[in-house]
What we know:
Layout: H1 5-31, E1 33-34, H2 37-62, H3 71-91, E2 93-94
Helix pairs in contact: 1-2, 1-3, 2-3
Amino acid sequence: MAHDAGYLLGMAIGFAVVPYFVLYLVYLLVTRRMIRIPLLLGGLVAAAGLTFLLFLAAGAWLGEDLAKTPVPMFGGVIIAGAVISLLGRWKGLPTQHGE
């Protein structure tokens, strides 16, 4: 089942979407910089796509044991955090209270 692309895509979406929005809220509260909605959604697609590619590579290496390892959880969180950080530094706008 780990080699099924639909299964890996579902895992990538599941393990990247929730951490992406949680990490964005944390980023927003800490840095007081917001990201525009189209860029935020584009980053979400990029994070899910990169997580899917990570799962493809890890699935080729680990096979059926992929779901039993911490790779899906930590991979999705790390990639989501990296995308949020890059978008925030590149295109982030200060909030009214952050000036």
